[in-house]
Amino acid sequence: MTAQEIEQLQQAAEFIYKGLKITNKPKQDNYYKSLILKWESNQIFKDQVSAIAKGLQLKVVHASVDYGVIILPLNENSLFSFGGLQNIRKNLGCKGTDDAVLRRGVISLAMIAVMASFFRDEIQVIEYKEKIETQTLSGIVSLLLDICNSLKEKYDTDKADIPEYMREGWEIILRLPTVKEGSSSNINSISGLITRIANLFVDEGLLKEDTHARDDLAWFPMKRFIEQSKRETSTGIFNYCMEIHYEQKKKFEERI
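Given the sequence above, the corresponding structure tokens read:
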């Protein structure tokens, strides 16, 4: 292998490294910008990046000077996977927190509600036109309650084969107060739970807080969130929960 080939492999690794550091901005880093331009114009370099990323259980889903490099884990078992439930529970935890609130079903449903508040299905993600649409805390809380009630009604009526951890999740959520007295950010309330998850998403470069919102907390999606939503809204438990939610919603409307 020549020195030039070795240098290009190093650059491919640096491309991935810079993409994993979500605070990096190509317009403020000329070397980062040059790597992206090389990725856009050099197929061999792009193939090398893809091979290294695949070896790390990662995938480059977007790269541009405007948004930087967006890299997502190939699966939830990746070392680089954000959103591992154990990790999120650890980050959400605090002294005195009721452990029940941090159980798998609770966190899963809360994360589904946050994502679904922006994109209800895969089609909405595909049709998203980069316009800034904020979602409020109260709106996400309302959607989470609607989803939980839909799942409960489906299970109570049809004895649907819903995973045990999801049943435990909605039972806990429906017992929580909307806002904990004395603090709207207390994790032992629905508002507090959503706020803490949204703030984690902000830290990961997925959401950005709308600092102009006056009466309620609000966030809008970043490019990284949109790219991750393309995957999450087309597979897995997200689709399962939202299909049941729409089915129950339709039945309710037909009864009116």
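The CA atoms of residues 180 and 189 lie 5 Å apart. Try to locate this feature in the token string yourself.
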